Structures are given as structure tokens and as C-alpha cells.
Amino acid sequence: MLRGTLSARRVVPIIRSEAAQESREFYGLLGFEEVMNHGWIMTLGSPAAPAAQISVMTEDATAPVTPDISVEVDDVDAAYAAVRANGAEIVHPLRDEEWGVRRFFVRDPSGRVVNVLSHL
Fold first, then answer.
1. CATH number, domain at 76?
2. What is the pLDDT of residues 39-55, one digit of tens each?
3. Given the DSSP bridges, would you call strands 53-57 and 8-16 parallel, antiparallel or unpaired?
4. In this structure, are residues 35 and 43 in contact, taking their beta carbons and an 8 Å threshold?
5. Per the domain annotation, does 77 fall within a domain?
6. pLDDT truncated to tens, each residue of the chain (120 aa)?
7. What's the domain count of the chain?
8. Are the beta carbons of 36 and 50 closer than 8 angstroms?
9. What are phi and psi of 59, to 5 degrees?
10. Domain span at residue 36?
């Protein structure tokens, strides 16, 4: 197993759904509140533990696929270089997004699409 100097800051599962309002209400029953909403993606978080989050997405605004999980890292450029050097499939290239993140999508060994990002 390779181990680098990268540090994961946050991991958020993403649920693809056309029922955003219903999902907000359902996860509200479990203690989550809306912390971000761009219309196409909404993130719900726990007021008691802000790192506990889940996102609900209808579709990705700029990528060809909907990711399964988001991993925020301390250095997205280093993460991009590492997964490319390892031969992983890049699903969405590294780019700066208008909502303040730099990100790329990569397919993990099980076929899941991972949104790897850092905030700008």
C-alpha cells in the first residue's frame, strides 16, 4: 500500500436523487440541516458535528457523471498527480470551478467515481 503526504480533510457521501426536498426532510429527522445549496447539489450537516455531512445531487453541473463520494484533500494538485501516476482513470479533468473549488473525478478500483477537491 502506498502512503503519501496528502491529507484528507473531509469525506462526504453523495446520493443521486431527484427528491431533494424530501431528502432534506428525511435527513432532518436524523439531525441534519442544510449547510449549502447550489440548486443541483445540496449538502446537509450536523450542527453538533459539522464534519458529519451528506450531499444530495440531481446531476453534476460541469461533469459528465455524478460522483459517489467527495474527498476534500489539502493539495488537490498533488492528489491528481498521484492518481495519474498510479494509472487510475480520470473521469473529469482537474479544473477550477466557479463555486470556489479545484477538483477532478477519478474512478476507484470498485468502479465508484470520487470527486477529489480542495477549496480555492
1. 3.10.180.10
2. 999 999 999 998 899 99
3. parallel
4. yes
5. yes
6. 455 678 899 999 999 999 999 999 999 999 999 999 999 999 999 999 988 999 999 999 999 999 999 999 999 999 999 999 999 999 999 999 999 999 999 999 999 999 999 999
7. 1
8. no
9. -165, 160
10. 8-119
